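Format notes (please read before filing issues)

Several people have asked whether sequences and structure tokens are stored in separate files. They are not. Every record keeps both together, in the order shown below: the sequence lines, then the token lines. Line labels are part of the format and must not be stripped during preprocessing.
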Amino acid sequence: MDDSVSLKEYSLWLMPEREEAEIIKSFFIKVRRLINTIAFKPHVTLLGGLTLSEPQIIERIDKLAAETAPFRVFFTEAGETEGFYKSIFLKCEETEELMEMNKYAQELFSTNNPYIPHMSVIYGDIDPTTKKEILDSIDLLTIQSLAFNVDSIFLCKAFGTCDEWEIIYEIPLKNR
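Then the structure lines:
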């Protein structure tokens, strides 16, 4: 497995809390049993590719958190792409809360990129036969039972390979 893809950017993540994270990690382990792959923290990227300074990013995250109420993320189906960081993923339901949070984040960071909310399950360059085998092993009812509360925004410093990435800031959502 080639894990040499290296980045130097920041990302805003939505992450499950401990109990929900353990349930999702258990699902990841079952799916990854078919392939030797990179382990990473379960997350939904709200906005990636940020190259501003940490203080500039944190200032904007604080504004976003102040205007966002907690909500729940749901999954609808599994999918795959040729992208390294989105090889096998779970598609998020495009709820009003999630899409509005992304829209506001894009306004704060002066970006305008298409947003397809998802949680990656497997990173890597995987051959199509193996991807099909993995996707066939994923049960739709299990996917739909995986959901998590969004109570905070996490700033990930994605410098280097994914085993070097780190969460450097967390702020709770405040608009309750």
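For reference, the curators noted about this record: The two ends are 43 Å apart (CA to CA). DSSP finds five helices and eight strands in the chain.
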